[in-house]
């Protein structure tokens, strides 16, 4: 389990990578919401609340604002371990000193889309969940993103990529955060490790002749940094890029400083 503060509320949620003993047992007596997983899955269950469940509330990250709403899948609408990616995208977009057209695939509630738009990019945000896209729209409103800076699309990301290729639409920057697994409309099982190389290859075809960056986040335990390096080596040979940065996504505890591993981020930056 992990104990987190989200604005004025303290939440406790399952976390498979939280191996260490609890640092302060007394602190764990203080909480507002506790996600109790079902016997079948850590991502399904129900919330227990000491008081009445709160309505959605806002939190701040620098100049950005996000709506927090605990869901039946234990998620709350934001992955704070990705904050370093928001900063990286912001820096690269600003330093580019040119109009940047960005695509955020599997964009969920759109923190990366909002951060990129706040830095001056025009963003196309795509997710198959209508509720997630509406959540992104709310985050954009809270962060005072100008109207029209983000285009909101509800669609299957792989099919959207195919249609964009046919339409000839191209992007200077692509952000993608694909799920570890899922099911298609025919209930067929989709595993990221089986489709990642094809997905990245198709994304590379959507880049402009002078791209800025590609940013990939993965949470699959079967995709190590060495596997990702091998994939990028094959796909990006003869490309004018800086050496890819493949690094862990992690959260640092405020009481004891321990790092909680969450996933892996891969940053590909093209040379000007």
Secondary-structure-based class equals alpha/beta
Order of helices and strands: EEEEEEHEHEHEHEEEHEHEE
Query: Which CATH architecture of the largest domain is right?
Result: 3-Layer(aba) Sandwich
Shape: globular
Termini separation comes to 44 Å
Oligomer: single chain
List keywords for this structure.
2 domains, globular, 7-stranded mixed sheet, Rossmann fold, alpha/beta, 4-stranded mixed sheet
Summarize the structure.
With 272 residues, this protein is an alpha/beta fold. The protein contains 6 helices and 15 strands.
Describe this structure in words.
There is one protein chain. It is globular and about 55 Å long. 26% of the residues lie in helices and 30% in strands. It has 2 domains: 2-55, Immunoglobulin-like (Sandwich), CATH 2.60.40; 80-269, 3-Layer(aba) Sandwich (Rossmann fold), CATH 3.40.50. The chain contains 6 helices and 15 strands. A hairpin with a 2-residue loop joins strand 1 and strand 2. The protein has helices at 83-96, 111-118, 130-142, 157-167, 192-204, 225-235; strands at residues 2-6, 9-13, 33-37, 45-49, 57-61, 64-68, 101-105, 122-127, 150-154, 173-176, 181-183, 189-191, 213-218, 245-252, 259-269. It is α/β, with parallel strands linked by helices and 272 residues long. The mean pLDDT is 93.
């Amino acid at each position: 389990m992990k104990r987190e503060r989200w604005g004025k509320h303290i939440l406790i949620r399952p976390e498979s990578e939280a191996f260490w003993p609890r640092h302060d047992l007394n602190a764990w007596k203080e909480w507002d919401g506790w996600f109790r997983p079902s016997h079948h899955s850590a991502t399904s269950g129900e919330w227990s609340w000491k008081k009445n469940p709160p309505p959605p509330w806002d939190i701040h990250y620098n100049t950005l604002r996000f709506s927090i709403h605990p869901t039946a899948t234990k998620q709350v609408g934001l992955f704070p371990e990705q904050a370093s990616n928001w900063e990286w995208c912001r820096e690269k977009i600003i330093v580019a000193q040119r109009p940047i057209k960005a695509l955020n695939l599997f964009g969920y509630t759109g923190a990366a889309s909002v951060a990129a738009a706040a830095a001056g990019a025009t963003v196309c945000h795509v997710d198959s969940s209508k509720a997630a896209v509406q959540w992104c729209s709310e985050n954009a409103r809270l962060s005072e993103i100008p109207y029209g800076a983000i285009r909101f699309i509800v669609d299957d990301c792989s099919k959207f990529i195919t249609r964009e290729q046919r339409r000839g639409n191209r992007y200077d920057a692509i952000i993608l955060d694909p799920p570890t697994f899922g099911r298609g409309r025919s209930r067929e099982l989709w595993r990221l490790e089986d489709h990642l190389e094809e997905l990245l290859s198709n994304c590379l075809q959507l880049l402009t002749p002078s791209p800025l960056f590609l940013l990939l986040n993965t949470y699959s335990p079967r995709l190590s940094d060495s596997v990702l390096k091998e994939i990028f080596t094959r796909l990006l040979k003869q490309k004018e890029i800086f050496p890819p940065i493949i690094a862990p996504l992690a959260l640092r505890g405020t009481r004891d400083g321990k790092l909680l591993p969450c996933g892996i981020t891969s940053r590909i930056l093209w040379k000007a």
